[in-house]
Amino acid sequence: MAKRKKRVTRPANDAAPSLPPITPGLLSPPRRVPADIERPPYASTGDPGPSISDLRRTPDELSAMRRTGAKAAEILLRAGELVAPGITTDAIDEFVHQACIDAGGYPSPLNYRGFPKSVCTSVNEVICHGIPDSRPLADGDIINIDVTLFCEGVHGDTSTTFLVGDVDDASRRLVRETARSLDLAITAVKPGGLVNEIGKAIENHARQHRLGVVREFIGHGVGTEFHTNLQIPHYYERRLQARIEPMMSFTIEPMLTLGEPHAALWDDDWTAVTIDGTRTAQFEHTLVMTDEGAERLTITAAGDCAHDHVAAMIA
Ligand code: MF3
Ligand code: CO
Ligand code: CO
């Protein structure tokens, strides 16, 4: 019998751009946070320690998360307005760092497990946790900016993928459907419902659009701690029987890929890239479960967010 030819799954490569891969740039000197800003416990040591917080918020914590979430959403919106060919990711870091301080808070990524900067900037094939550096954005890039603000004792964690100048159709489709997968997941999860409904909704949507779902990085409980023990996979995990109860606070942050969703880590131990070099997009909200369903906490006081601005550009 003839050897069965192994079928290679090819990405839906509708004109994937052939830009050079992202390479590490230079880091600027460390940025400082004024002494009067309240810091999370890991700020000096880098070590958040084991998670000990409840998965649910108290009413006071929830009020604080609404205010902090709105500030984080505002900072992300304004960071997105800087996105243009020629600006470095370090300049975005400088802006977000100062905006967090001006909002009376601490930029949560700074020294979290030793992360050297105040925001994550993930360009093109970088899946997440890109470190801001001297690389200027190029026309045609896509960039995820992931802002987390610590203020009033709680974190607000939100990210959007922005378009840089003139972006190819495949990347626009990737960005659009990744944003939609987050929206679908938010409506899919019900009070007292299974956590795995989130991943089911995202994976179904990705499959319909022939996009990959990253499995190595997942959403998480968030509140007084940056990352709690609550795990939110973005793929369907049948055996996961955990439920989301009212007052639980968490993120959903799907990372979808044009090609294979497998990740490799740079030598900096942070920057995660697709192994096949194809592009990837991510959108993230911090949410709280209410009796009615999941409510977004990372929206501005006016009720909008950077996601909607980007989505409107590529609808
Ligand atoms: N904001 C990221 C998340 O969504 C975490 C970044 S951790 C850092 O969970 F150290 F890289 F900042
Ligand atoms: Co997060
Ligand atoms: Co984040």
Describe this structure in words.
The chain has 315 residues and is an alpha+beta fold. Strands 1, 2, 4 and 5 form a four-stranded antiparallel beta sheet that branches. Strands 3-14-13 form a three-stranded antiparallel beta sheet, with no helix packed on it. A three-stranded antiparallel beta sheet has the order 7-12-15, covered by helices on one side. The relative contact order is 0.19. The protein has five helices and 17 strands. The chain has one domain (59-313): Creatine Amidinohydrolase, CATH 3.90.230.10. It is globular. The structure holds 2-amino-4-trifluoromethylsulfanyl-butyric acid (MF3) and cobalt (II) ion (CO) (2 copies). One cobalt (II) ion (CO) binds at residues 146, 148, 157, 159, 253, 284. The site of one cobalt (II) ion (CO) has 5 residues, from loops.
Query: Number of helical segments?
Result: 5
Largest sheet report: 4 strands, antiparallel
Give the distance, in angstroms, between the N- and C-terminal Cα atoms.
Answer: 50 Å
The CATH architecture designation is Alpha-Beta Complex
Which consecutive residue ranges, at least 5 long each, have pLDDT under 50?
Answer: 3-13
- What compounds are bound to the protein? 2-amino-4-trifluoromethylsulfanyl-butyric acid, cobalt (II) ion
CATH topology: Creatine Amidinohydrolase
Series of secondary-structure elements, N-terminal to C-terminal: HHEEEEEHEHEEEEEEEEEEEH
CATH hierarchy, class: Alpha Beta
